[in-house]
Amino acid sequence: MTLSSAQVEVRDLTPRIGSELVTDLDTLLSGREAANIRAILEQRGVVYFRGLQISDEHQVAIARTLGTIVGNEGDEGIYKISLDASVNQRAKYLKGSLFWHFDGSLQPYPNLATLLKAVQLSDTGGDTEFCNTYAAYDDLPQSDKDLIADLRVVHSAEHSQYYVEPEMSYDEVAFWQQSPTKACPIVWTHQSGRKSLLLGATADYVVGYPVEESRALLARLRDWSTQPQYVYRHQWEVGDLIIWDNTGTMHRAMPYAADSGRLMHRTILAGEEPLQ
Ligand code: OGA
Ligand code: MN
């Protein structure tokens, strides 16, 4: 299937995930290709645009052609992603982004998509990896599809913080436990009929499973989903704009120093599909 159109050339980066989209800024801003780009995103999981001189205003305008923007604390569509607490007060929570996750796992609807633009890079580290959880689900052996068909996982902010701070104090645990948890199916059956997996750093435990079995299953499914054939690793250039389909992928930043200056500008599109 060719996804390219007259105005957008699709250059696949790996067979199962990731494409560079070659187009021009006017086309993106006009929204003429928005429906096409959404279809490409759903097929390819993650796309990027390079060399288009996309300002913050452009980024917000492009996002609006694709869906409905979700704000973060009065940010007008641009939220600063940095591990430096003097740039983002929630830097500690954002350290969870170094581990496989999808965005908005604790929200009523997971976000539709995230736009992330590189403003400043770290000298070392700081690539971003993405995995395709549609493809990972499709390839599961039937026995695993049967096993997980009706399983639910409770997601919590607290769980993702154990990756960042393995020996949290009582006060820290109590703080993170104030965030509401949310039960999600492991298998998300979309309105399209396609199925993807919902896992990641906020995935705390499988409902009704003994503790060890729950941990083992979550680790096994994450290992499966993040095998090299499902993964695209993006090496950023300043100005790159990435968009990922947050409903059929997970992502993580590769380690970088909090004081490296790495800064990304993020815009989030609201989820449109409820979870069953
Ligand atoms: C995010 C995120 C990864 C990165 O913004 O949601 O996970 O590489 N970012 O900064
Ligand atoms: Mn994220």
UniProtKB/TrEMBL annotation:
InterPro entries: TauD-like_sf, TauD/TfdA-like, TfdA_dioxygenase. GO terms for molecular function: dioxygenase activity. Residues 9-267 form the TauD/TfdA-like domain. Keywords: Dioxygenase, Iron, Metal-binding, Oxidoreductase. Its cofactor is Fe(2+). Belongs to the TfdA dioxygenase family. This is TauD/TfdA family dioxygenase. It comes from Mycolicibacterium arenosum.
